Amino acid sequence: MSAKARAPRTSTRPPSPPSSDELSQEFYRRMVMIRRFEERAARAYAEAKVGGYCHLNLGEEATVVGVMGALDDSDYVYTNYREHGYALARGIAPERIMAELYGRSDGVSKGWGGSMHMFDIASRFMGGYGIVGGQVPLATGTALAIEYRAGTEAVVCLMGDGTTNIGAFHESLNIAALWGLPIVYVVNNNGLGMGTTVEQSSAEPELYKRAASYRMPSARVDGNDPAAVHAAMRVALSSARAGVPYLLETMTGRMKGHSVVDPARYRSADDTARAQAGDPIAAFATRLLERDLLTDDMIAEIDREAIARASAAAAFAEASPHPDVSTLFDYTYATAVPNDSRRLPGDALFPAPPRPSAAHTEVMA
Ligand SMILES: Cc1ncc(C[n+]2csc(CCOP(=O)(O)OP(=O)(O)O)c2C)c(N)n1
Ligand SMILES: [Mg+2]
């Protein structure tokens, strides 16, 4: 419970539908789309079509669709840099996401953000942050703005397990609990912060228990089961909308390296094999086959469609123009300061001093 009693918020929007057969099929489709998109992104990176860093959601697809499927359109989403799947699940077109990876002007951030910095205000997708924990205070501030305006939206702030050891995580949870902010902190525990295990880095490795320090309700859920994540997320969201922030820990496994270029040599072959054996897509397919909600033919068709869409996204990205360099600072919000970095190559470091006027020269003489 939050320390301050407050009137429960009532949402004007209907809640997302409960888990149903159609929803399970739709979740499966979305998971496969994320998988095939990420594989295509990895290929594009290897072909040097994508610059900068590139972190994939491979192995985390069930958590991505379960969390995102529980949100209303009016809710706000903040993620870390491992974000392509969340952007897809928010309904942003794969073409715009791939174009952003390629740094092209049709990209979701007009080509200036890249893999880690995708923004789409229309879908209230607020980024995309490369600094571990950078999104947590910003998401908390958005929840404060909603509270201040007595809005009915909620904020979901996604992060990894490693982020729970950043100071801003604790400061944000503390203030959110004190002020009863409408926010769900989702900790996607994939067992690793780059190459460091949760056990090596967290004195309390059951991360959901950390919420107790802030008297915040929390839960741990099987992050490989999209229906379980979806159900847990609905509980978390209704708590947040009633003014009681929530922490949800989803247990997943990272199937590949930290980023596309990481060979993950710090990991034992057994550990990697375990993560790959826990593949949430294969497990969900088995369950849906058993319940006659999928057939082998449907699985093959869904896969074909996802591969075709990912290829179409890559072709679209390839054909999209590079952004013009003159637009480099168009979407930045920092105020100009004397030593700012808004210079392009060849620009003077400081503006030339004003020339003395004729009148001024006469007085001096
Ligand atoms: C403040 C800060 N410190 C260190 C880094 C380098 N770094 C990038 S990702 C990462 C690990 C984060 O792990 P986790 O939060 O579990 O997210 P995951 O990559 O597993 O999704 C680190 C230490 C950074 N980007 N920012
Ligand atoms: Mg992690």
Automatic annotation (TrEMBL):
Reactions performed catalytically: N(6)-[(R)-lipoyl]-L-lysyl-[protein] + pyruvate + H(+) = N(6)-[(R)-S(8)-acetyldihydrolipoyl]-L-lysyl-[protein] + CO2
Region annotation (Disordered) ranges: 1-23, 342-365
UniProt cross-references to Pfam families, sorted A to Z: E1_dh (PF00676)
Domain Dehydrogenase E1 component: 29-325
Entry EC no(s): 1.2.4.1
Low complexity biased stretches: 1-13
Cofactor names: thiamine diphosphate
Keywords for the protein's UniProt record, in alphabetical order: Oxidoreductase, Pyruvate, Thiamine pyrophosphate
One Gene Ontology term of the molecular function aspect: magnesium ion binding
Alphabetical list of PANTHER family matching this protein: PYRUVATE DEHYDROGENASE E1 COMPONENT SUBUNIT ALPHA, PYRUVATE DEHYDROGENASE E1 COMPONENT, ALPHA SUBUNIT BACTERIAL AND ORGANELLAR
Subunit structure of this chain's protein: Heterodimer of an alpha and a beta chain.
Protein name: Pyruvate dehydrogenase E1 component subunit alpha
Source organism per UniProt: Microbacterium saperdae
High-level lineage: Bacteria, Bacillati, Actinomycetota, Actinomycetes, Micrococcales
